[in-house]
Amino acid sequence: GTPPARVPIPTPHGRCWVDGSCEVRPGPEFLTRSYTFHPNRLFHAYQFYYEDPSCQKPAHSVLMKGKVRLRRASWVTRGATEADYHLHKVGIVFHSRGALLAVAERLGLSQASQDCARRLPPAGAWLPGAVYELLGAQAEQDCAAALGFTMHELSLVRVQRHLQPQPRAPSRLVEELYLGDIHTDAERRHYRLTATAPLQSASHVHHHSHPCLVCGLVSHADEHHPPVLPPPVALALRLQGRWVSSGCEARPAVLFLTRLFTFHGHNRSWEGHYHHFSDPACQQPTFTVYATGRYTNGTPSAKVRGGTELVFEVTRAHVTPMDQVITAMLNFSKPGSCGGPGAWSMGTER
Ligand SMILES: *[C@@H]1O[C@H](CO)[C@@H](O)[C@H](O)[C@H]1NC(C)=O
Ligand SMILES: *[C@@H]1O[C@H](CO)[C@@H](O)[C@H](O)[C@H]1NC(C)=O
């Protein structure tokens, strides 16, 4: 296709961006982030990791400093900019001896990272507040990457503004920073995009009217004072009813979608509509999935305290391609193998 026209793009520079809630990533990992982009392309980023899914027990904090250069408008994700980054320094602070042991154990698993494990102190010599360098002037090997601390999410950047409705108050202008990770093969033919949760601009969090309590906590934190989030309100699980996304969701691997679920408690069946989009404003539809099935009674989770584990079974699924590319892709499947006989067409559910 033709590359997008050159228009001035809002950049993340000159501001601090923070998480508005405790982020849960596959693993599971629990974290909050605070990224500051200086006007001169330099950035410093904090990633605060926790032991618990409420982000109340800090485990370790990672500080990264580097340089990011916005390169060109992305032709994969509309409105986004591809970027290059370079890390100058990565340091880690452990908030408990147990956190040090957990990280050292991860490093000890592979031969390549065992040299990095030597950079960390033995558990007995751990000093609260000490910063251990994983990458930088003194570090001859990149131990940040060995531990999985990277900033690949800076390869795709998008700043978005939208009006957020508020109960009993005028709508508030919210600025969000979407970051993504682009993986390409050598010929740049196949892209795999993963998006992280959006960060919010922290420029107004000092203002009393700012409704984001967590944003304020995260923006005032540093590697020695990780943010401790307020305890979640425990509610009994009542799935029954209809649940909708409060906005366009950015999710790792899936990218952008909105979801609508209906749970029928009396016969333990569920229905879900997954509307997928190619852009972070959820305006360019790609395909929709409608799925139905049954679910089990919940049992308290052993892994995630306060969580409930349920098993969802899909008994029927319908797909509606919403753009030419997806339609053509489905059309390439062996005739009759997917969606019954006949060809797929845009906007038709099968
Ligand atoms: C369960 O009940 C809902 C509404 O009462 C109905 O629409 C749905 O088809 C039922 N599902 C099954 C699997 O019986
Ligand atoms: C899908 O396949 C049919 C039959 O081969 C063809 O007529 C149609 O143009 C195809 N559609 C797309 C979007 O590729």
Automatic annotation (TrEMBL):
Residues 4-231, 232-350 form the APCDD1 domain. GO terms for cellular component: plasma membrane. GO terms for molecular function: Wnt-protein binding. It is a single-pass membrane protein. Keywords: Glycoprotein, Membrane, Signal, Transmembrane. InterPro entries: APCDD1, APCDD1_dom. GO terms for biological process: negative regulation of Wnt signaling pathway. It is found in: Membrane. PANTHER family: ADENOMATOSIS POLYPOSIS COLI DOWN-REGULATED 1, PROTEIN APCDD1-LIKE. This is APC down-regulated 1 like. It comes from Loxodonta africana (African elephant). The gene is APCDD1L.
